[in-house]
Amino acid sequence: MLHLITFRRKYLDRWLENRIGLMCGNVLDLAGKKANPRGTFKPPVKDSHLWVYANIDAATNPDVRCDAGNVPLLDDSFNCVLMTELLEHVPDPEKVLLEANRVLKPEGTCLLSVPFLIGVHPDPNDYQRFTEDKLERLLFDAGFRMIECEPMGGWWAVISDMVRLLLHNHRDKLGPISRSMFYLVVRGTQALQSLDELSRPTWPIVTTGWAVVAKKV
After folding, report:
1. 103 with 109: CB under 8 angstroms?
2. Cα atoms found within 13 Å of the Cα of residue 133, Cβ hemisphere only
3. Are 118 and 130 in contact (CB under 8 A)?
4. Phi and psi dihedrals of 103, rounded to 5?
5. Per-residue pLDDT tens for 127-180?
């Protein structure tokens, strides 16, 4: 069975590509994967002064192996902290955001993404989902000013990714004909990206997740 890239991953990769200019100077990639990364986005490691991967999972080949809420790096030492698809996996997101603020230089940038309407995906745990209001409050309490909070896809993105999840979870139980039918349904839904873009005014209500730019106050 062919691998089907989710709408969410497409939107996330596109969002990251459009914000490469913010990933400059010293960059901390918190929970980033140096080995076996996901998606098509290629971090501009060579263009930054210093790019540090910090991850608790040794299999990702991190530069610093640590918990996201306890980073053994100096205060005010990074221009940018990148944390994609992290906060849903930690029991104390407030602590993680405080650590990100601590290691950032004044007016440093935090780039983060979190899911909303997607399936449960432990890595190794899956604790919560966030709304825009909750993200703004968490960031404010951690010493950040939210600059941008962009929804990532709408109705069609959510429907497509949920069908893909159904296909993936039941791939061993479905016969060849059923698998082909589900494959065509998923492919057909994903082909409606233009329709998803047309539904953009409804994205804050129904979306796969959020992508945020915040500044250290």
Report:
1. no
2. 1
3. no
4. -80, -15
5. 999 999 999 999 999 999 999 999 999 998 998 888 878 877 777 777 776 667
pTM of the model as a whole? 0.91
Query: 29: closest CA among 59, 92, 73?
Result: 73
Is there a contact between 93 and 83 (Cβ–Cβ < 8 Å)? no
User: Which residues have C-beta within 8 Å of that of residue 191, sequence separation ≥ 6?
Assistant: none
Angle 93-103/132-141 helices, nearest 10 degrees? 50
Q: Running DSSP on this structure, what letter comes out for residue 124? A: S
What are the phi and psi torsion angles at 30 (to 5°)? -80, 120
Q: Using alpha carbons, select from 197, 213, 210, 200 the residue that is nearest to residue 19.
A: 213
Would you give the DSSP letter of residue 88?
G
112: which 2 tokens? 């983060």
Q: Are 73 and 85 in contact (CB under 8 A)?
A: no
Task: Supply 62's token pair.
Answer: 């991190």
User: 87 and 112 in contact (C-beta within 8 Å)?
Assistant: yes
Closest residue by Cα to residue 110 from 74, 135, 91, 88: 135
Q: Strand, helix or coil at 65?
A: strand
**Structure-token pair, residue 169:** 């979870």
